Amino acid sequence: MTDNQPAITEEQISSAKLVWDFHQMHHDVHPVDVAIGLGSHDLGVAAFSAELYRAGLFPTLVFTGGNSPTTAKVFPRGEAVHFREHALVLGVPDSAILVEPNAGNTGQNITLSREVLACAGITPTSVLLVSKPYMERRSFATARKLWPEVEVTCASEPMEFDDYLKSIGDERLVIDMLVGDLQRVIEYPKLGFAIEQHVPEDVHAAYESLIQAGFTSRLIAR
């Protein structure tokens, strides 16, 4: 929180938790042909991808992502590159990792990862998308639109909302991103970027209340 920003209230945290819960797909994770670790500011994606690889759930792991304003300082060589390096430290062999270093949005994460896999001679029928916790639903909707022939499962590092806030260290950033991701879940189907998904009334009301409270830095123009 900066000096010119009000403290985040308990009511706002409660609203944010509703949105957080909605973003998670609660899929049962099972063996798949490949996993794709979606780049972001959250290095936990790489760590959880490595954990799932070590559990034997897939033979090939793609890390995808270039840079964004949120990640350029943290991961100056690009999200996918840093994620790969972290996974190597955690025991994933280099031979199991493919890197897609250019994607700048979720649609590109999917399409460019698909191209990288094709270049490696891999045509999966089942894919596990590993993302930050509040990106599961958007990544699912995007993959189902752009890659409808594959079975899509979503996963993220299992964390409670309060623990995630502490792990990132910036409550306002996280809530801004929760709101921004839900806006994309709502709006992107109209643009042909994703499949449509029902948003429950209480989740939508929580989302609107957070917008009214100023959690808007990750919104696209409506």
From TrEMBL:
Protein name per the record: YdcF family protein
Domain annotation DUF218: ranges: 49-152
Highest rank taxon of the organism: Bacteria
Entry-linked PANTHER family: DUF218 DOMAIN-CONTAINING PROTEIN, INNER MEMBRANE PROTEIN, PROBABLE PERMEASE
Organism: Streptomyces werraensis
Pfam families linked: DUF218 (PF02698)
Lineage: Bacteria, Bacillati, Actinomycetota, Actinomycetes, Kitasatosporales
